[in-house]
Each structure stands twice: as C-alpha cells, then as structure tokens.
Amino acid sequence: MNTGEKKAQTEQPSHYDHLERMSVGELLRHINDEDRLVAEAVRKVIPAVEAFVEAVEPRMKRGGRLFYVGAGTSGRLGVLDASELPPTFGLSPDIVIGIIAGGDKALRSAVEKAEDFPEKGWEDLLTFSPTPMDTVLGIAASGTTPYVVGAVSEARKQGLLTGCITSNPGTPLAAASEHPIETIVGPEFVTGSSRMKSGTAQKMVLNMISTSLMIRMGRVEGNRMVKMQLTNAKLVDRGTRMIQESLGLSYDEAQERLLETGSVDKALHQD
User: Fold this and answer.
1) pTM for this structure?
2) Which of 121, 124, 181, 256 has the fewest CB atoms within 10 Å, measured from its CB?
3) 40 in active site
4) In this predicted model, what pLDDT tens digit does every residue of 155-183 receive, in sequence order?
5) CB atoms < 10 A from the CB of 10, how many?
6) Residue 115: active-site member
7) Which of 84, 178, 253, 256 is catalytic?
8) What SS3 state is found at 4?
9) What does DSSP assign to residue 191?
10) Is 200 exposed, middle or buried (0-12, 13-18, 19+ CB in 10 A)?
11) Where are the extended beta strands (E) located within 36-78?
12) Cα torsion angle, 68, 5, 7, 9, sign
C-alpha cells in the first residue's frame, strides 16, 4: 500500500493557478496568505512537540545526543539548526548533530539519488557510534523519504529514542517514530514545493525543540544567552550589555570583565 501517495497533501494542487499571470504584489500577498496557515498548523502539534522534548531532556542530561536526519531542504534545515546551537548556547558541536543525505556536498547542491536508499541513513548514523541514550529525529515533508524512514526505523530497533517532523498524515515515517510530529500545512503555493510552507513549519518546530532543550539544559538565564560564544564584535557587544545591565557596571568595566572571563555566564557569577 503506497500510503504516501494516498495521503500526500504536500503533493496536492495549489489553491492558486496561473501564477505566471499574477503581478509581483499578487504573488507576494498570496504567498503570505498561505504562510499564515503555518503557525496554526504548528500550534496544533505543540502537545506532540512537548512530549518529544520531555523524552529527550533526561537522555541529553545523561550525555545522550540528538541527531537530525533529513534529505534536501529538510536535511539542510536540520543541519542549520544544529550548527547554530554551539555559537548561540555554547553547546559542544557533538551533542546536536545534523545529518543530510549526500553529505556536506548536499548542503549546496542536489546529490542524485542520495535519499533513495533506506539503508544509507543508518549507515551514516553509524559513523557516530550511536547508543540507546541517543535520539534520532527524522525530517521529511513527504514522510516517505527512504533515507530518513530507514534511519529512524533502524534507530528504533536499536533502542534509540525516535521522532519525526512531517507534513502529511499517516506516513511511513510517522509509523516508524515513537514521537511523530505532523504539521499539516496543506498544499504548497507552488504545487509540490515543500521548501515553502512545509519547510517553514519544520524550521519553526526545530526552533521550538532545540531552544526548549537548551533552556532546560541551563543554557539560558532569565531570557539571556549567557553561554553564547564570543565569535564576533556584535556578540561581544551584546554580552557586554548583558553584564552592564545585570551588574550595574559601566560599559568599559563590563567589557573588561567579559573578556577576562571569556563568557557572560562566568562574568555574571565571578566571585
């Protein structure tokens, strides 16, 4: 039974036609109208996201890792989210890891048939020596991508915690996952172009998952990124102002303290 074909809302015709006849203003307004539907679709799955985060948190606190696995746009979004956590929250880059079908080359250009082999996803995970303490989150708008379904299926067999983000209901990927997150955004503005609403929904859910986990892991104080890496002048300035506001120091005093300790967190709690 081809479940993906039967229920593939991401492949249904757009609500709009003759796009080439529209003015730029019409195109932009209609795209925006469709984008408004995404936030509501994500709101509906908050209970599923909550359950997933609550399942990951204790594992991560005991040293478990979180792997994002995807292909194409979905894979790129996973790699993007994972790559932003070290500079933003001072997280070691080997805790949340993005894996994309076709490897790093696929971040910039399509790799032919990279997503078509179900065994390849788990093979790529094996290079990281996964353990049952780890978690695999499969990301695929269609919910049928062999690379992703294969990785999640085998990970679950091996005792890893599994979840997924997909934009179709009742998919093989959801069936393979303990924690399916189904953001049903409906047909895309350009028929089948899941880089649009589906991709936006994936980005929103990934933000929710990773940000919630980082807060729960103690990497935010109040509402500030106190463990961020000081990798450029903008972040040094931001950190200086955090210290200045928290401790009532002058800007120069705060910056001196920041550069001396190397992080906002250490500067705020320096004896």
Assistant:
1) 0.92
2) 256
3) no
4) 999 999 999 999 999 999 999 999 999 99
5) 26
6) yes
7) 84
8) helix
9) T
10) buried
11) 66-70
12) positive
